[in-house]
Amino acid sequence: ETLRSPSHATTAGTDAVGSMLDNDFAFVKRSDGSFSYAILAYRSDEYDPVDRSLEESMAFVLSNSGQTKTIKKNQWGRCVRLVSRAMIQLDEAPR
To answer: Fewer CB within a 10 Å sphere, N or C end of the chain?
Structure first.
């Protein structure tokens, strides 16, 4: 689902995004510049042949059909928005 209001997400730095655990939710930047609600599937270290080093990355599932996007650590601050606390509280409210 596409981010509809900026109040639903918070801009976070690399450290805050790095504290996410598998199955945590976030908004992830799509190639068209929009942000979609996604779930963190797993983290991994990917080899960068140019730098000859390992770089941490996160793989997110973006849709029910299984579309995924992997985001390297150097892009976390630009491409991942944490779900706002207010949004979490609304979701947990009794209905």
So the answer is: C
Gap between the Cα atoms of 75 and 14, Å rounded: 8
Q: Which helix (H) or strand (E) holds 92?
A: helix 85-92
- Is residue 81 classed exposed, middle or buried when 0-12, 13-18 and 19+ CB atoms within 10 A define those classes? buried
For residues 62 and 54, give the distance between their C-alpha atoms in angstroms, rounded to a whole number. Answer: 25
Query: Is 64 within 8 Å of 79 (Cβ atoms)?
Result: no
Burial 37-56 (b: 16+ CB within 10 A, else e): bbebbeeeeeeeeeeeeeee
Tell me the per-residue pLDDT of 32-87, one tens digit each, with 9 for 90 and over: 988 888 999 999 998 888 889 899 999 999 988 989 999 999 899 889 988 876 55
